[in-house]
Amino acid sequence: MLTYKMGRRRRLYSHKQLILFHDSQSKIFDETHKTDTLKLPSTFFEMKDFEKFLQVAHGVQLILDSYDDSWGVIMIAHRYGTKNVLTYCERQLIMDYEEFREFCDSCLVIRIIKRAIKFNLYRLLAFSLEFLFKNYERDTYDLFNSLNWGEMTNESMKIVMANVLYGEH
To answer: Which superkingdom does the taxonomy of this entry point to (predicted)?
Structure first.
């Protein structure tokens, strides 16, 4: 069993082998190598988000209630390198696009694109770019200036360029 501690009193528990199986970058293994306790930074994320992260990592088909819940879990999954949680949350966000389409503006879509680039969520990036170009009259020059090209991976650059130049991915 792994124990997750935040502060003195807040604790969560999980099966060690299951978490370490999904720990693709060995970050959790490295931090819990000598003891079976992982101290969680209280400034980085909230305990409720970490609890949702553990549930998804253990295979629970959790419906993330809000847009912010999804990004909180994605931040944790990206930090610890658990690809199954990243893929699940990415799929949730893509499926929820239709729900927030009514109150969605181009600024929100660009914010999603920036986060997809930051967390290497390639399917969400391609979907968001396609959504942006189909639903909003957007100048590609403004989009190019708003993206941080220095932090992009090659795959992200390819997706952006394919959508801008050819309208497809």
So the answer is: Eukaryota
Specify which residues 98 forms β-bridges with: none
Q: Which CATH architecture has domain 1-96?
A: 2-Layer Sandwich (3.30)
pTM of the full structure: 0.76
57 and 14 Cβ atoms separated by less than 8 Å: yes
- Contact criterion met (CB below 8 Å) for 140 and 166: no
Q: What is the pLDDT of residues 132-155, one digit of tens each?
A: 888 777 666 677 777 877 778 888
Reduce the DSSP state of residue 11 to 3 states and report it: strand
> How is 145-168 classified by DSSP, letter by letter?
HHS-GGG--HHHHHHHHHHHHHS-
Q: Which of 53, 65, 63 is nearest to 12 (CA)?
A: 53
